[in-house]
Structures
1.
Amino acid sequence: MTQPRLATQTEHGRMYARSVGGEPEVPSITTVIGQYAQDLGGWHGYMAAKAALEDDRAMRASRSVGLKHAVIRDAAAAAERYRDQAAARGDRVHNYCENVALRAMGMDHAVDDSREELRQYGESAWADRFDEWWDLYAPEPLAAEVTIWNRTVGYAGTLDLVAKIGGRVCIIDYKTKGTDRKNRVKPLDTKVIMQLVAGVKAEEALADPDTGHWVDWEFGDAPVLLGVALGETEVKPQQANPDLLKHNWFKFCALRKVWEYHRSVDAALEESSLQPLMPVVPPPPRIHMPEQDAS
């Protein structure tokens, strides 16, 4: 379930309510982390150039103004198309992973249906590699797609998996990744540490979304925070360095304040007729007085 039932997309990013139909109250973990600016200009430029060179219409575009603009328009949107396609693939892979965990917990699941969906999109390799990882590490799932809340800082989120591996409780976050030129899965972004530490710092877990019933979070002392890069050719799990958790928690809390500042400024502008920038007129001309004769 990639769109949690209590999550809603708003003008301030994804936000969570306390119950189904309730008002969004706090930002999601990913929305908070999204306040950290990242320069993607080079990647956007590369994707646009690649799309233009690979476009079959490019050779004919010089003879048609309309066709040239169509090629340019499509190339400019290449990065967004790639992002949306990767997000949709990630949703399908996460759905399969969740159903595997539900099956292991003896709960209702749709493993066969979710795997068939991956097959239809030519993405069975992700499921194959995940199954290999699951068999190798033998996780004992305790909770899958669990929604958590932190009242003190003010955020919520949904964790992919809580499981015991080798007898130790692990908070696990899956990241679907592409494959590099060496046929290896691409590395995890270090921002995943903030996501994991925000998860372990939760105070409540959702028990019933319809009634808005929450219970105390019982995995706040989980000793292992695990990011798992899922690719077509391999799966690479990596543990967040325990010595860096405190620093990443402070960074996450600072980004939460940044989100609040952005929202408060936007709200102030919406509630008033004040303009952010005002015109400035030139000053009046200076009047030069004749000098008095000292004699």
Note: The chain has one domain: 7-269.
2.
Amino acid sequence: MKWAMIATWRMAIDGITEGSQLLKEGKRAGEAVETAIKMVEDYPFYKSVGYGGLPNENCEVELDAAYMDGDTLSIGAIGGIRDFKNPISIAKKLSEERFNCFLVGTGAEDYARKNGFERVNMLTDRAKQYYEKRKRETIEKGLSPYAGHDTVGMIALDCNKKMVAGTSTSGLFMKRRGRVGDSPVSGSGFYVDSEVGGASATGLGEDLMKGCISYEIVRLMREGYHPQEAADKAVSDLNDKLTKRRGKSGDLSVVCLNNKGKFGVATNIEGFTFSVITEEQKPTVYLCENENGKTTYEPASEEWLEAYLKRIKSPITFD
């Protein structure tokens, strides 16, 4: 197989469809990943990534992103950046640096400003409304504020056998100021090696980091595991370890792709979705189920896809 792209969640389908056009034209995986993730970041109804992303406890949007080149193993990452558009592009630029390639907070913002990245207020009116609703529910109904942590994570393989991984997220909803999860952390939120393959994770970053899960999947693929076997084993093993040692495990979901274009996916939750497109397969959204440590999936129906769009665009109401 010449090229392929896989990403976490339904929200990535339009992005990987656009990115695949570049791969068809012989463009590089990095360009495809950046283009695809920027589309997710720019869509205001995706409330866990980029513009319109859900804010922290102080109603500030802090964004994390990362980019990794599977040929050189170069990494660029940012954490807790505010008021800059398209953090994936900032991370990609940072991957060109020999030193200082992971910047956070004001340091990341200074770097973005000096390198001409667009400054934008990333907090939308809709996100503020959602914040106020959840704040009220937290106080009045005792609901957990930490709901909403859906990272877009992506891996691409191009016609030159180069592989790239990218991530972008606004992180845990109503998180403490300065909190950073797994998404920009190499080996946890992402990892890619063009000689083997790549993986990316989404879910509760605090738990995903406890298993360095993306690196573990790539390691298993290097040992000869099929991507699906590697994904299932990594998620099942970490879920079991956390349950045994801590009494419970947070949400753990992963996607992976090897350097031959074969993909895998695994989750320990209900409702995980992913998006994939290859030279041989049209862009498809899949719905996942997990039973006894094995993940299965089937294409989303047109009815499900229509209901999804209706749900994410529905007005925010206060009881």
Note: The longest strand covers residues 281-291.
3.
Amino acid sequence: MGGPNLEVFKFGMYIMFPIATMYYYGTNLDKRFSVPDFWPKPEQTNRIPFEKEEIHSELERLKQRRLYLREKRLQNEGKNEGQDS
């Protein structure tokens, strides 16, 4: 039905479409479409402790934080109960 002309056209489209896309957008895609400071720096991310001492120190830090927040919450609840009466 379409004959060889259709096949030549399809082949041309398969070849020319990627080439035209690459020509239009160019090779500096990182500069054109990147968002500056999108990914956090390594020092800003959480670091998983692997050594035994690091794990124990991290657990101690989390325990101290939990106890501090608990104490703060209990103080706020005590103040709120005193105001309600």
Note: Helices lie at 3-25, 29-33, 52-84.
4.
Amino acid sequence: MVVLRLDSLALSRSRFALSPFAETLAAVVQLARPHSEPWAAAWWERHRPAFLARLAADGYARGLVELVAATKYLPDHLTLPPGGGMGTTLESELAAVARVPDEVAEAGLRASQAHAWAGRRLDRLTGRGHGARAAALFRELWDAHLAADWPARRAALQRDVTHRAGLLAAHGWPRALHLMNRTSGWVGTDAIRFSDRPGPDRQVGPDGMLFVPVTAQRSSWLCEAPGGPFAMVYPARGTGEGGSGGGRARDGRALARLLGGGRAQILRNLETPATTSELALLLAQSVGTVGGHLAILRDSGLVGRTRVGRRVLYHRTELGDRLAAGPGVG
């Protein structure tokens, strides 16, 4: 069991961050696998043919992607903590990856291969300049498969952070970190269980640690680098709830007939609390349109609002939850 131990100072200085690189890495793993997560099926089907064609044309790219999709230990040069907080840029992260020395990257690749299944080999990952080659590959994959979707993905990630920040302010870190991934949990008063697999405990330094959401619902890993904070990458809430089941689709159509399409869409997306501007970006609507729908939903008792710092978060009421869940639920 891997445990992250934090003293009171480390805990007080821990914070959230975004990582476009982590989002890209999680998306690459999704595209490399033969089946999509249900919520991302349309994106996966749209991008996978070009993604596979890109790998077929480049042995190094194919070798690296196949390794990260088949291992329980991601290579060290691909798991660096983001350095810019909520404003971290892809460019800054790619520059950090490119600077990783070959000996560090090669050691990480060997460790990753040792934890991979199906006998993954490193035959294609030869030569030098692993950091620079990985940075160039991920830049290309970002441009081809993530850049256009990033505003909506970022909005979903910001909603998760806003939700957890509200829990943190009201209840403390144990509640904010609850169910962050399938195996994490709070241990006692000063430690986080990250994984149930064997591994050494980590002592988090006085600068605290970072919590980094990604939209992929099966993605979770630990980032560390000399002189930097630990970072836990975890699945954001509310990005995979759409599904494709026939029952949910029928319930969605019934809800739209009852409330109108725009208000029904907002109510469904408020499973995770959000601000007006976050909803507007996520749904590609104007702030004014979303604000009007929210006013009607509030007047109907389906939505409430709470101020968290400078933000006003809208959330479903108990009645809104029951209505969004559909017949026979709750």
Note: The chain is about 50% helix and 10% strand.
